[in-house]
Amino acid sequence: MSQGVQAETGLPADWPAPDPDALALSRELSARLRERMETRGSMPFDLWMEGVLYEPGLGYYSAGQEKFGAAGDFITAPLVSPLFAWSLAGQCAEALEASQGDVILELGPGDGALAADLLAELERQRRLPREYWLLERSGSLRQRQHERLQSSVPHLVDRVRWLDALPDAPLRGVILGNEVMDALPVVRFRRDAGGISEFHVTVSGDAFGWAVVPARDAVAAAVQAIERDVGAALPTGYESELCLQLPGFMATLAECLADGLLLMVDYGYARRDYYRAERSQGTLVCHYRHRAHWDPLLVPGLQDVSAFVDFTGAAQGAQDAGLAVLGYATQAHFLMGAGVTALMEARQGGDAMAQVQMAQQAKTLLLPGGMGERFRVLAAGTSGMPTPSGFSLYNHLESL
Prior knowledge:
alpha/beta
């Protein structure tokens, strides 16, 4: 083991080491993944990603470790500032009125910050839904969400309902997802001179390593479809990701919407930008204790593993499922169209420190160096749904 690396984990020596309980969970998950590789010798990366994120009781999103905020691994827009939720509230109010709906379904609700701030703002606007549904399978996160809601909006908790799965009957209202699509498992592929290869994970001594094998038929077909869309073959040696699950995921959400709006926020690109020739190493990124890096094989179950979203694929999936794609914009452009500046001015009050703090939060949400350019917003709706006002200033549908 080289100097500067933790012998037990492979993490850089100056990064925080996992505590013993977390390390024990990671070892158990690693052993389970090794067992699965014994019969096949290796595992496609999308199956590996599925395991390290969602293995019951052991995966990153299934176990009880801290994930969000200063004590976790990353921070999301709702944790940066309530301005994010306040801006989305207006969009939800518009959609509830247009659909004559009474339900908001939030996917992957994190620690409940978005739900709490959104409900508070909708109450202020006198547009509260009859029910606010949280799709959350993790018991520990459900507890966090309940505590957050009980602390922030105790009088509204009785409107909140937790779901283990998507509802059986289609709803009228809004389906909302912030940083959900990036956590769908992805394939890692490579364009070779003789065809398409994909990356598998294999056992390498006491650790995990990479193997490159001929791509599955579905993967090869998906890469060829990407090349047709971008108008050229990818360069030899080009590596990237694709999400085989994304079209089906969007179709499933569309089936849940009887009348209303689907609003998704995530980091990603339109397809022609995603698969630019110079972006030849892909977009895979891992987060461990607020440190971003590019090795998804370290400390299984203790770090977030994600890839940027192909928003063209997401939009196509929604359209193929019968929804109208209404809007696509950067987070900055969307929040500006949704009135974030007016909201900020109205809420700053006379407290100079509060004004400075909110201005700093707004910079993180809006500026290209923060979340403003990297994050995108996609809206799709049932027949007759109007385009949300968040796209009134900028709507870049032509780039999809």
